[in-house]
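Good morning,

Attaching, inline, the backbone tokens for the sequence recovery test we're adding to the shared suite. The designed sequence is right after.
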């Protein structure tokens, strides 16, 4: 923790870490931390194991190396109980065992929005740009209502041909064959689909506008730091950037909506539906920002990992191809048609309910990849839990890796093995014990799951039908197996040990 923590603090507060000579920062890190850093490993009288941190500041590693940090809690809680750490004046409790997990997902005093609003700064926040009269609950209910409307089967069904055309056009815009980083070009496919299905046609139609949108999103992410999250009032360099980028993003999304409203022009897209419902531009932009954010981060990282794993596993790759071939033969037998047209003729209901191989592959990929920490805040009264008191105002975190990568729950947990989901009894067991929560659980299950699964299925089907590919490093040397995801990288879970590329060429 030491060097990076101090450096990130300094770079954020002072403005530019490169202005500090290396020896100064190293001396500071070693000297200051030797005095300030403390580590408490045993369970204390308040019933919690206290995790290491810096006095007054707390455990900055929760932001900078989250997975490494939560693994301390997983180890500390192994024989029961929960861990606790400080972030400035906030207490954060990490539950990793069954009792804490069940409480985390079902207790009504734990507030979802409050947890993320204070402890997670990755999403662009509309309140950074325009003042909002609506309460958080009202904004959430608006978001849920609109999302559910857009995900109705008949509505999605009408969009499917356009989604496949978009995907095919994007793939046509790549060099016919070559080496590409999936964490770059596959992410862009997800953005394209999300904007097409849940946002504004004017942007979905324009590769340049999509590129700009992607730049703005990653701009918000890059401008997020521990300081901007924990000290939102602090006029740091990153905070100013974040506000500026969010304001630009807001305007970028609002402009085409306002223009269309002013011209009275009618298009066929999600924005049009919202305009016809009389929605304000602010609400529409809020919806689009949140939907796109959920889309490009989680769906993006999971589809990249899915393609990596499938490629490294000939058995599952063959099963996937035969599932796709069977669907094509049944629903679009004319082999003279282009593959994206044929795939688009498979009904949405079939994609959702009759693709068992894709379902297993997605489930297993998410178990290994989707392992961030979920967050809540106790907004009600003090609660007794597992021999300790979770006070009103305390935060709670549940690291998904505590369940998903635990050898007590999954044999050989780092092995990608979709077959482990074939036994219905096993699936039921994980459901009952809450040991698979890749799509959330209890009071806050993922509301975009159906759409995210469709996006991953469409991309997997079209990409693997169009291309042959192998996994290589940046020099083109083949990569054995599949690296582990770096779970400290909250936004991409990028491969440990360096970038992985796909060397691809068209299938004949
Ligand atoms: C592979 C892609 C995705 C994965 C693995 C995923 C996973 C999750 C998980 C684990 C949660 C629970 C968070 C918690 O309990 O703290 C969640 C919640 C949520 N997800 Fe997703 N998600 C994905 C894609 C999407 C997409 C594309 C959308 C929307 C377009 C979406 C919308 C939501 C919403 C609105 C919630 C919050 C529900 C609530 O407030 O109760 N998700 N998701």
């Amino acid at each position: 923790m030491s060097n990076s923590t101090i450096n990130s603090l300094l770079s954020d507060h002072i403005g530019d870490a490169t202005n500090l000579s290396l020896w100064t920062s190293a001396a500071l890190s070693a000297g200051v931390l030797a005095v300030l850093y403390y580590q408490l490993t045993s369970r204390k009288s308040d019933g919690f194991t206290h995790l290491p941190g810096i006095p007054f500041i707390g455990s900055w590693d929760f932001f900078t190396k989250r997975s490494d940090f939560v693994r301390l809690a997983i180890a500390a809680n192994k024989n029961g109980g929960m861990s606790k750490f400080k972030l400035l004046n906030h207490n954060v409790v990490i539950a990793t065992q069954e009792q804490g997990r069940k409480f985390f997902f079902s207790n009504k005093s734990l507030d979802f929005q409050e947890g993320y609003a204070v402890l997670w700064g990755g999403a662009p926040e509309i309140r950074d740009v325009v003042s909002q009269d609506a309460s958080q609950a009202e904004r959430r209910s608006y978001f849920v209502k609109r999302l559910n409307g857009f995900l109705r089967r008949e509505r999605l069904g009408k969009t499917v041909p356009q989604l496949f055309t978009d995907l095919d056009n994007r793939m046509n815009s790549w060099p016919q064959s070559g080496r590409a980083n999936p964490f770059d070009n596959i992410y862009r496919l997800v953005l394209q689909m999300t904007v097409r299905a849940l946002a504004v046609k004017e942007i979905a139609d324009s590769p340049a506008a999509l590129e700009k949108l992607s730049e703005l999103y990653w701009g918000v992410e890059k401008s997020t730091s521990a300081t901007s999250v924990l000290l939102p009032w602090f006029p740091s360099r990153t905070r100013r950037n974040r506000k500026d980028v969010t304001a630009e993003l807001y305007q970028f999304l609002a402009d085409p909506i306002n223009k269309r409203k002013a011209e009275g022009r009618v298009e066929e897209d999600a924005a049009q539906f919202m305009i016809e419902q009389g929605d304000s531009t602010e609400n529409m932009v809020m919806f689009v920002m949140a939907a796109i954010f959920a889309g490009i981060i989680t769906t993006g990282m999971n589809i990249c990992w899915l393609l990596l794993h499938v490629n490294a596993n000939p058995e599952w790759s063959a099963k996937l191809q035969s599932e796709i071939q069977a669907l094509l033969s049944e629903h679009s037998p004319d082999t003279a048609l282009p593959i994206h047209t044929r795939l688009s003729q498979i009904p949405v209901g079939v994609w959702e309910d009759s693709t068992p191989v894709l379902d297993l592959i997605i489930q297993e990929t998410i178990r290994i990849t989707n392992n961030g920490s979920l967050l809540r805040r106790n907004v009600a009264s003090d609660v007794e839990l597992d021999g300790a008191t979770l006070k009103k105002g305390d935060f709670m975190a549940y690291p998904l890796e505590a369940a998903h990568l635990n050898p007590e729950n999954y044999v050989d947990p780092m092995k990608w093995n979709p077959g482990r989901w074939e036994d219905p009894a096993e699936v039921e067991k994980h459901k009952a014990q809450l040991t698979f929560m890749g799509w959330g659980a209890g009071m806050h299950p993922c509301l975009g799951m159906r759409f995210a699964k469709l996006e991953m299925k469409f991309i997997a089907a079209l990409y693997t039908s169009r291309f042959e590919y192998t996994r290589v490093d940046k020099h083109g040397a083949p990569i054995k197996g599949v690296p582990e995801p770096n779970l400290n990288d909250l936004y991409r879970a990028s491969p440990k040990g360096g970038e992985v590329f796909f060397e691809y060429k068209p299938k004949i």
